Amino acid sequence: MILVTGANGNLGSATLAALRVGGAAATGGSRTPGEGTRHLDFDDRTSLDLTGVSTLVLISAGYAEDDQVVGRHTALVDAAVRDGVDHVVYTSVTTAGDHLGFAPAHRATERLVRASGLPWTILRNGLYAELFGGLLMWADDGVESPFGNGALAAVAREDLAHAAAAVAANPARHRERVYDLVGTPITAGQVADRLGVPHRTIGLGEYRRRLLDETPGLLPFQPPMLVSIATGIRHGFLDGTAPDLTELLGRPVSDPLAKAVAAASAARPEASL
């Protein structure tokens, strides 16, 4: 049995769906499980029952400070060892993302997985095209961003889900492999051109100010995380490509520009009216 954590999240649910479409025996785990999924609360070790699980797809339990994220992952890896899981597949962050604000938690988890004694595969996922488009800010008749002319080797979330499913369905073939799953470089200017609007660059200081002063609901760790993404794209650290994703998918990657444009368009103020 394959178990995918974060089954109610975007990546987890898409990975579970891809596995089931492919005929794999798979279930999901979530803090708030639905029909056909298990209750798994990373903050409650007594809920972490992985009995009968052969392959664990550990979708990163982010959206918290690093120590909390690593603590959650440690609890699940410990449960995997205790319950005799045969293989762990971990969704990490792209190799080029070591400077990103959330990278330490990913790299620490990679160490945990490697040191567990269990067979493992690490998927170093590029940043979502949907995220890139969603981070553009609508202003007057155009969009603004802190990305400048920098490019992001963005990836469609669905492609990453299908890659995770391909690995989980045949884990022995991918034992002790690290895959760098990045896509085709795109820029904010290209997204704006496709939308038919101008793009204006703002400074990183202004971007941080807007996050802190004009973006209600952000958790304390999120503004520095988002600024780290912005500076990484702006200064050319996240535009590198690799063949791994295409090879795992067995087909060309989905067009990340189209995904970014759709996300930006959905965020347009009149789109919600």
TrEMBL record:
Organism: Streptomyces galilaeus
All residue ranges annotated as the NAD(P)-binding domain in the record: 24-171
Source organism superkingdom: Bacteria
Name of the protein this chain belongs to: NmrA family NAD(P)-binding protein
PANTHER family given in the database record: NMRA-LIKE DOMAIN-CONTAINING PROTEIN (PTHR47129:SF1), QUINONE OXIDOREDUCTASE 2 (PTHR47129)
Pfam families registered for this protein in UniProt: NAD_binding_10
